Amino acid sequence: MEQPRLNHVQCLGLDRRLHRMAYWEWGDAANPRVLVCVHGLTRQGRDFDELAQAMAGEYRVVCPDVMGRGESDRLSDPMGYAIPAYVADMVTLLARLNAETLHWVGTSMGGLIGLGLSALPGSPVQKLVLNDVGPVIEAASLQRIGSYLGQNMDFTSFEEGADYLKTISAGFGTHSRERWHALSRPMFRQAGGGFRLHYDPQLAVSLRGITADQASAGEAALWYAYDSLKIPTLLLRGADSDLLSPATAKAMTERGPKARLQEFADVGHAPMLVDPEQISVVREFLLGP
Description:
The protein starts with a strand and ends with a helix. It has helices spanning 49-55, 83-97, 109-118, 139-146, 158-167, 177-184, 203-208, 212-228, 246-254, 276-287, and strands spanning 5-12, 18-26, 33-38, 60-65, 101-107, 125-131, 154-155, 188-191, 194-197, 233-238, 260-264. The strands form two sheets. Strands 1-2-4-3-5-6-10-11 form an eight-stranded mixed beta sheet, with helices on both faces. Strands 7-9-8 form a three-stranded antiparallel beta sheet. It is globular and about 50 Å long. Helix 2 (83-97) crosses helix 3 (109-118). It is 35% helix and 22% strand. By secondary structure, the chain is an alpha/beta fold. The protein is built from ten helices and eleven strands. It has one domain (5-138, 211-287): Rossmann fold. A hairpin with a 2-residue loop joins strand 8 and strand 9.
């Protein structure tokens, strides 16, 4: 299997300190057509290996590790782990990429980052794929994520760690053991003779500090951003998702860019975009008129 190129870009944080953001790159580095794929809350850019390989003939595919995850730096102040800061990092990345055509695929948190970026005046994003996320985040999903986020767990072997990930990732759908190990391997680093999840456990701090008023204001801001979009938008939803409700998905097809909705059976939060059916839907949308 072809391996991606690993690069880094220096970004300025809200704390006025520099940090390095890693990004994985597939395809011709000189291709002016760029597809950026951004992962969910605790994941990393290698989640998109199979989608990237499927699109690398038409695009320069760039899959960043959002700060605090994967090969990117961790922050000294955990309150910097927030969507506005992530959007700012992506603006820096896009300046490095110098894309003439820019399309975006975002899973969960990566979709919210893409939404924020796409809503900026003069945004270069021309097509947007939101994977199982919208302006309304269901409380049940936040409680589920909060039950495991931030636990600095150690595992005696990679297999033990991968099995643990599977227990908290039932929404990703059914995957063979080989594929699950491929999805899980970039999530771990060796530590003290064992294995540890490769993201900053301090990611939990800002999430747990959100008040009801802040959540309400955030939802209103996300709907405002969504309603301002005027670009083709594809909304993917796991039919069993606990994060993106059917009501929110329906509303997203009726307002703003009036997203095209595609649901996948036997998947919750979130489709991993590794199955041929899922890749085909994304590919047809991005390469279509």
